[in-house]
Write a structure and sequence with these properties.
Elements lengths: L2 E2 L2 E2 L1 H39 L5 H27 L7 H34 L1 H7 L2 H18 L26 H32 L7 H36 L6 H18 L2 H22 L4 H10 L17
Antiparallel strand pairs: 1-2
Helix pairs in contact: 1-2, 1-8, 1-9, 2-3, 2-5, 2-9, 3-4, 3-5, 3-6, 6-7, 7-8
Keywords: Cell membrane, G-protein coupled receptor, Glycoprotein, Membrane, Receptor, Transducer, Transmembrane, Transmembrane helix
GO molecular function: cannabinoid receptor activity
Protein name: G protein-coupled receptor 55
Length: about 325
């Protein structure tokens, strides 16, 4: 932000240049390495065609691809956000990739939460209605949704001449008809679904405490579900709160200069640190792969026996990180 009438944002810009280097360079390096390895790891399970792990692997690969897109957009985001009047089509492409990856991750996590809840609540039913083809179809729907939803990004800068990529959004971008669909369908609705599914899953697992012989594992599941919900909220709630505050600024509800400077700083910081979520997601992939391998080694003598043991657990398989419980067919 350069200048808004008599209110300068130069100090915020200078501070964020330093913060971006300190946060986004490690995020890029770590996220690139770990997401590529995650995609490779889950692809190996697909190649081996083990039915117990196929649907899980498809979801995880989809999430890793979205995270990888965000990671790849970071160097361009840092470069373009420091150059005024960058090549607009390229700027728009980078902005699209950045926000598509963010909301693609949110929608994927949302569907994972629903899948996990259904598997815990209706394990036998889910084992018959779920298939890799259906899960792949859901992932394709997510891609279509985020690409179609990205169309307002093409007019982010409108007819502004002195623009900077990821800055100086046009007034139309912050209009109610553009902002509220993004806020409601892009975050509030998914967060509500994730919160409901996570809380119900925890409630069901706790209620089974006196009726299960595998309480230690289910207790770990409860903790991972709760932690995953907390990580999601911490990663994405500040960003969308800052979007709302900036909406108030751009529509004239907030006019005091110091307050506007604070909101801009909050917006930039929340976006910067939310990018690290792509690295937090990565660590969960390896816990999932570890669970897969432990389950395979434990029940290696008989694949049929392995599947029966999997199903007898009531569809509850401990997965750390973006953990969900499922009976995969």
């Amino acid at each position: 932000m350069s200048l808004d009438k008599n209110c300068s944002f130069k100090d915020v810009d200078d501070l964020m240049k330093t913060v971006q280097l300190a946060v986004q360079i490690p995020t890029f390096l770590l996220g690139l390495l770990l997401n590529v390895l995650a995609i490779r790891g889950f692809s190996s399970f697909l190649k081996k065609k083990w039915p117990c792990y196929t649907a899980t692997s498809i979801y995880m690969i989809n999430l890793a691809v979205f995270d990888l897109l965000l990671v790849l957009s970071l160097p361009f985001k840092m470069f373009l956000s420091r150059r005024e009047g960058s090549f607009l089509p390229f700027c728009t492409l980078v902005e699209c990739l950045y926000f598509i990856s963010m909301y693609g991750s949110i929608f994927t996590i949302c569907f994972i939460s629903v899948d996990r809840f259904l598997a815990i609540r209706y394990p036998i039913l889910v084992s018959h209605i779920r298939s890799p083809r259906k899960i792949f179809g859901i992932c394709c729907i997510i891609w279509v949704l985020v690409w179609v939803g990205s169309t307002p990004i093409y007019s982010f800068h409108g007819k502004v001449e002195n623009y900077t990529c990821f800055h100086n959004m046009s007034d139309g971008t912050w209009s109610a008809k553009v902002f509220f669909p993004f806020e409601v369908f892009g975050f509030l609705l998914p967060m509500s679904i994730i919160g409901f599914c996570s809380s119900r899953s925890i409630h069901i697992l706790v209620a089974r405490r006196d009726y299960t012989q595998d309480w230690v594992q289910q207790k770990a599941c409860i903790w991972t579900i709760a932690v995953n919900l907390a990580v999601f909220v911490v990663s994405f709630l500040p960003v969308h709160l800052s979007f709302f505050l900036q909406f108030l600024v751009r529509n004239g509800f907030i006019v005091e200069c110091r307050t506007k400077q604070t909101i801009i700083l909050f917006l930039q910081l929340s976006l910067c640190f939310s990018n690290f979520n792509c690295c937090l997601d990565v660590f969960c992939y390896y816990f999932v792969i570890k669970e897969f391998r432990v389950d395979i080694m434990t029940h290696r003598p008989s694949r049929t026996h392995s599947f029966l043991v999997w199903e007898s657990r009531g569809g509850v398989v401990g997965l750390s990180g973006l953990f969900w419980s499922s009976v995969d067919q």
